[in-house]
Design brief:
homodimer, 205 residues, mainly alpha, 10 helices, flat, DNA-binding
Chain lengths: 205, 205
DNA sequence: ACCTGAACACCGTTCAAGT
DNA sequence: ACCTGAACACCGTTCAAGT
């Protein structure tokens, strides 16, 4: 059998299977994905351009589900907070995706929309143009770093010798994902405070 | 010739060659590194445990050079600022290293020391134990994200459709590494402000 | 002690051949 | 139109053989 009467593959089917495989924690790649789909690796190239394109499809799939459209008339800090929380929920729900998308360029429309929404909220609030992308990037780095931390909460640092405080702090309760959650809340509160203070300065000047 | 009279390989030689190869931007791996060293891939395994160990050696090499010991009696915010600036200089000087070390566990002694120094500065300043690791992590994520941004400053987002503000902001001058530098300065100033404000709250309570 | 050759189980991608 | 087989140029790692 070379070609079934009804197509067994589409970009959507590939994206879904990719997300499932990534979430499983098993090694991810074109060959492994083809195996999971019961198909030979070259077949995928009839529907997607290659590994990077598949990863971008996965990003799009997640963005569609998690980065929903926000009300345009909400206060800027509500928009910012909602977006970061949605982004972090996306990452913590699919932690194995984080390392794959962390270093690639974002082209997916819904993901771009989410960043555009945050950028627009900051522009409308009164932040100067020259700062907005920086702030969007800072917030994104925080959400992403927080996602990486959630995926491997106690594995970021492994001191092998004596330390003044780091080793002791790593032993403190709570551990793991609970600590990662608390870390996220503290970091988010700090960033929002800093943003509000900075906006004050701009509006006063 | 199976074994030369004088060893051609040591862990240091491998680490240096690895850094040089990574910095060149060419594909990095055990095989490519062996080729660069004029040696067969299995030879490396007499000196290092594998690819991950080589990457950790590179981290150590950079930490030795950039994350120098700081005076223990400096004000906490000077320590924090110096460490972040040193870390960012390390990443911007070796941008291709960033994606390789971003997702791996830190075990190198000098790198651990740097984090321990920051943690201790925050503890001594009066931040509660429960927050210190979070803050160290937030600062680290910022430095790392800033390094990633410097490596590919205009490639983080590529909108293909229309956007309210994102596309316009991406076109603004300055571009590239200059913007990345400005972004770093703004982000750093914001984080230090937020840290000082948070410490105030803790000391007042 | 340490480098090599051979081997293993993988990768991502291209392309002509098949239906 | 779309799946396959064969092929290519790679990976990282193990291990017996060589000096």
């Amino acid at each position: 059998m070379a070609r079934p009467h009804r197509a067994v593959l589409t970009a959507e089917i590939i994206a879904d299977a990719a997300l499932t495989l990534i979430d499983s924690g098993e090694p991810f790649g074109v060959n492994a994905l083809a195996r999971a789909l019961g198909v030979k690796p070259p077949s995928l190239y009839n529907h997607v351009q290659g590994l990077e394109a598949i990863i971008e499809l996965v990003r799009g799939r997640l963005a569609d589900r998690y980065l929903v459209e926000l009300p345009a008339d909400a206060p800027w800090d509500v928009t910012v907070e909602s977006t970061i929380r949605a982004e972090r929920l996306m990452y913590t729900s699919h932690p194995h995706v984080v390392p794959l998308i962390a270093t690639s360029t974002v082209t997916d429309q819904q993901a771009i929309n989410a960043y555009d929404t945050t950028a627009s909220a900051l522009v409308d609030a009164g932040f100067p143009d020259s700062e907005v992308l920086v702030l969007v990037q800072l917030l994104d780095a925080f959400a992403l770093g927080s996602g990486l931390d959630y995926a491997a909460p106690d594995a970021v640092w492994r001191p092998e010798g004596k330390t003044r405080n780091l080793g002791r702090l790593l032993e403190l309760e709570p551990r793991g994902k609970v600590r990662s959650d608390q870390a996220f809340e503290i970091g988010l509160a700090m960033l929002l405070t800093a943003l509000r203070a900075r906006l004050e300065e701009h509006l006063r000047a």
